[in-house]
Structures are given as structure tokens and as C-alpha cells.
Design brief:
It comes from Gemmata massiliana. By secondary structure, the protein is mainly alpha-helical. Helices cover about 65% and strands about 0% of the residues. It has two domains: about 5-145, no CATH class; about 155-215, no CATH class. The protein has helices at about 5-10, 10-20, 25-40, 40-45, 55-70, 75-90, 100-105, 105-120, 125-145, 160-170, 175-185, 190-200, 210-215.
């Protein structure tokens, strides 16, 4: 895929295939988590409109554990326990486990199932287009442009830059990204891609390629 094709691509599957030889499991898991967070509001509602708040609580817990697992902060047992708890909450409501929960536990294996489920539920061409655009935006946010593999020289990683990046990462509050851009610029950063990304409207999620570069995460 050329750089121009990458920039204009609206198919998340094609973009992921382009990245398959270079992306880490951590990045892929965080992409899955970001996709799951997008549909949290759908999880506690049965297709007939019945509210099921317990489903959402277990689902959110599974997302949090999956996110921690991606960073090595949760064990496989914790991940599996969270998965089965979320899984059980669906069966207790007499429904099969939603593939959205599977993607939280096993992102790299279940992405296709999740997207198939989205298509089943939505059945709305415009909504499908919107979701495709949202997912491609998340891929660009997490993986960056594969044709422009950036680097952060040590001299740009001042105490201020490192502190801001760590705070953003831990809190998942990305409102300070423009401030991070200013701090990078003060440190000598002249990489337009990095500065524009920090000052852009997002979306920004955990796994952001700029924050990961600063913190040395892959």
C-alpha cells in the first residue's frame, strides 16, 4: 500500500494487513480495546430494548483488564477470568456471548468476528461507513503512518515532555496533547507530523503513536 493509498484508505482490514509484519500484539490489542470502548453504550441493551446494566459492568471490566494485559500489567489468568465473567453475564441473560467480549480477550484472533457482528447489528450503510471511518482513524492514531516511521531523539525527551506523556498515558486524558506539542517544540522538535498529531483533533487513545515513541513503547 502506497502512502497515498494509506492516507485515503477507508478499510480497516486492508490497513491492518499492511501493518501485519510490523505491528506488535500490544498495539493490536490496544486497537481492539479502543474499538470496544466505542460500543460500550450498546452492551447493556438487548436488541428488543431491554436494559441489562450488569452486562455493561462486566464488559467494561473486561476492557480494563484487556488494556492492562496489553501493557503486561495483568496476568493471563486475570484476562481469562474477566473474559469468562463477561461471557457468563451474556449467558445468564439467555444470549450467546457477544463477539465484542471475545475481542477484548483475544483481539488478534477475533477482529473479523467483531466487524461481522457490527454489520449484523447496524444494517445501516451510513452507520457502517461512519464506523469504518472511526476505525481507520483509530488505526492511524495508534500505528501512525508506516511510510514515515518517526523517531524521538533523546534531547527532545526533557523531564517536562516525559512527565506530560506519562500523565497522558496513565490517565487517558488527552486534553494535554497540545501542551505536549509545545513542550516538544521547546525541546527542539521540528517534526511536523509529530507536532500536528499532538495538536490535531484526534481521536486520541492509549497507544497513540507519538506518546508511545516518547515513552519507548512498541
Amino acid at each position: 500500500m502506497s502512502e497515498g493509498e494509506w492516507e485515503s484508505c477507508d478499510n480497516p482490514g486492508s490497513m491492518l494487513k499492511c501493518l501485519v509484519s510490523s505491528m506488535s500484539n500490544r498495539k493490536l490489542r490496544l486497537f481492539g480495546v479502543a474499538c470496544c470502548r466505542r460500543v460500550e453504550g450498546l452492551i447493556d441493551v438487548h436488541p428488543l430494548g431491554v436494559q441489562m446494566p450488569g452486562r455493561q459492568e462486566d464488559y467494561r471490566r473486561a476492557i480494563v483488564v484487556a488494556e492492562r494485559f496489553a501493557d503486561g500489567a495483568a496476568t493471563e489468568k486475570e484476562r481469562n477470568d474477566a473474559y469468562w465473567r463477561a461471557d457468563d453475564s451474556f449467558f445468564q441473560n439467555e444470549f450467546f456471548a457477544d463477539p465484542f467480549v471475545d475481542v477484548v480477550a483475544q483481539t488478534e484472533k477475533r477482529f473479523g468476528e467483531v466487524w461481522a457482528k457490527v454489520l449484523e447489528i447496524v444494517n445501516d450503510p451510513q452507520a457502517v461507513t461512519n464506523e469504518l471511518q472511526a476505525q481507520t482513524a483509530l488505526i492511524r492514531e495508534i500505528f501512525g503512518n508506516p511510510h514515515r516511521r518517526g523517531a524521538i531523539p533523546p534531547e527532545w525527551c526533557t523531564n517536562t515532555v516525559l512527565t506530560l506523556a506519562q500523565q497522558v498515558y496513565e490517565s487517558r486524558d488527552f486534553s494535554a496533547m497540545p501542551i505536549l506539542a509545545d513542550a516538544l517544540q521547546d525541546a527542539g522538535c521540528d517534526n511536523i507530523d509529530i507536532l500536528d498529531h499532538c495538536r490535531g483533533s484526534g481521536p486520541h487513545v492509549r497507544g497513540c503513536w507519538v506518546v508511545d515513541l516518547i515513552l519507548g513503547k512498541e
